[in-house]
Amino acid sequence: MSNSTYQSIDFGALTRAGEGLTQWRALGTGFLTVLLCGLLSCLMQQLIARTGGVLGMLLALMSGVLLFIVWLAGMSAVGVLLMDKARNVPQRGIFEAAMFGLASIPKFLLLGVGVLASVLAFMLVAALIYFICKVPVLGAVLAFVAHPVLVLIAAVFIIACVWVVFPLFAPAVWTGLDFRQALASVLAIARNRLVQVVLMMVVLYIILAVIGMLIALGVLPAASALTALAAGILRGGHAGYGTMDWGAAMGMFSNSALMGAMLGMSVLGLLLFALVSLVAIMGMNVLYLQASSGLQAGRPGGIEEAFGATEETQEEPGSAVSDAPPAPLPVACRACGHRVGADDAFCANCGARL
Q1: SS3 of 243, please?
Q2: In degrees, to the nearest 5, what angle opens at C-alpha 13 toward C-alphas 12 and 14?
Q3: Whether the Cβ atoms of residue 278 and residue 26 lie closer than 8 Å to each other
Q4: Contact status, residue 189 vs residue 175, Cβ threshold 8 Å
Q5: What b-and-e string marks burial along 143-160, b requiring 16 or more CB atoms within 10 Å of the CB?
Q6: Burial of 250 (C-beta count, 10 Å sphere; 0-12/13-18/19+)
Q7: Alpha helix locations (H) across the chain?
Q8: Does residue 249 contact residue 227 with C-beta atoms inside 8 Å?
Q9: Any residues with CB less than 8 A from the CB of 34 and at least 6 apart, and which?
Q10: By C-alpha distance, which of 182, 183, 210 is closest to 17?
Q11: pLDDT exceeds 80 at position 233
Q12: The pTM is what?
């Protein structure tokens, strides 16, 4: 692995993850997704409760699939909006992003099926090897070599999936790649830059921890003090400022005003969680762009293998132009028709400029 592989990654670019805090269009898309999922869940629960039986079970299955589709499409819409920001391109509208997210669902399903098939195939091969290891004497020698190798292969597969394939496949899709190109992209990153990506993930987690700690240091004391004050006033009693009366807080549910305050705090908690999630998604997008950019420099095994046909197609016009023969030099004067040499500037017969 060349030194340029390391130099082409800018770890400081991960600080752009904080830009996710200001992306209100993405935040609104996520809120609409959660709201729609909540409404669908309530509606489906009512239908299932009234139906019951086998039909109720079918409705429950259908509602689960529908909620999964809505949630995945909505989160993909949020991701593609943040990817537009990460790539510094004009941000698309919410509806366009939602349609893009809906079209991305089959790619994620194919990834899940592919990973599951790979795991099953590996376990089948491992089981076959272990059966062969039951052979006396020879089996012990084979087990001595095969078992550690299988464990190592499984460990590398798990690390690649957890740290590269699962986190970075979605950003690859959000850039507009099809399934084959997105998979080739993340596999190239896992093959060439596994260590760098893991380090970048650690840096991103540190950024998320710092942002979460800053939010918690402000919200938790404020929530404790004001919740205690609200519990004391709205219940007709009193509470010490800055102290949390948990008994009073639990009794808030018997008071409509207090219950409204608690519901408002729930919404605030979801909003803060959504903001941190936007930072995480934005960070993953920036991380993918950083990890994949240097692999397009022509190194073997890089992303260019996935785009080989496209790059060759794009290079054909240039190669056609460069391979085309130069325009033939004039062999006769255009004014009088007298033969001239290739190095002549003027016609020797009429003096016309060639």
Answers
A1: coil
A2: 90
A3: yes
A4: no
A5: beebeeebeeeeeebeeb
A6: exposed
A7: 3-7, 24-51, 53-86, 94-132, 138-160, 166-174, 179-192, 194-234, 246-250, 256-293, 308-323
A8: yes
A9: 74, 270, 274
A10: 210
A11: no
A12: 0.72
